[in-house]
Amino acid sequence: MPRYRLDIEYDGADYAGWQSQEDQPSIQQAIETAILGFCGETVRVYGAGRTDAGVHALGQVAHFDLVKDWSCDKVRGAINAHLAMTRQRIVILSASRVADGFDARFSALRRHYIYRIICRPVPLVLERNRALWSPKPLDAAAMHEAAQRLVGRHDFTTFRSVQCQANSPVRSLDRLDVVRGGMEGLIEIHATARSFLHNQIRSFAGTLRLVGEGKWSADDVEAALAARSRKACGPVAAPEGLYFRSVDYPEE
Questions:
Q1: Which residue, 59, 84, 167, 214, is most buried by CB atoms nearer than 10 A?
Q2: Is 52 labeled as catalytic in the residue annotation?
Q3: In this structure, which topology does domain 3-98 adopt according to CATH?
Q4: Topology annotation, domain 110-248
Q5: What does the pLDDT look like over 15-49, one tens digit per residue?
Q6: Which of the residues 11, 14, 23, 52 is marked catalytic?
Q7: Alpha-helical runs (H) found in 117-227
């Protein structure tokens, strides 16, 4: 059976997240339905990461198997056509044939995320549901300095959801940079790791926002990490600012 890789972009505002759910729309279910519509095969699409409700993707990766061998252009075009017919906010950027051993989740070396914050005194309109609004300016340099205290291999109990199902809170964080974006007032948090805990990046973003507001220092962030307690975390930032940016694989 031929295996296909999909690179996917989506606006997660109207979805309950990546994973299929019985009574709510999901990214996974929408793509599986589109595949069924174009080739008549019922398949399971496996994603590189399970984004939560409201979270977006610039380069989510998924794989699935088909019985019939279709051209990659046909797979991409047909899935996109069926997604468009049902007015899904999802598009397949590319489709490619991969080896049978490729797994979108387990073959991944690193995952990259971006969290976007827009600082301005008035609410967002065009960027609503696509960034976190901060009515006050934030000190991006102070946020970046504090973020470096989190880079490395740590017990991230403080920065994971109490519902997190990971066996261990220990993770290696390769990158956590806070930079000014290309538009006025935009601040981006760039995070890279092999894997993340549930709500880890949103927990980082909410905590670093306290630093940007001058309420916390870099030492406070380090103390929160050392506490290994969810109670020591800052507020969890809203999902609309989070984007699954891309995934690294060995063949790349």
A1: 59
A2: yes
A3: Alpha-Beta Plaits (3.30.70)
A4: Alpha-Beta Plaits (3.30.70)
A5: 999 999 888 999 999 999 999 999 999 999 999 99
A6: 52
A7: 140-147, 200-212, 218-227
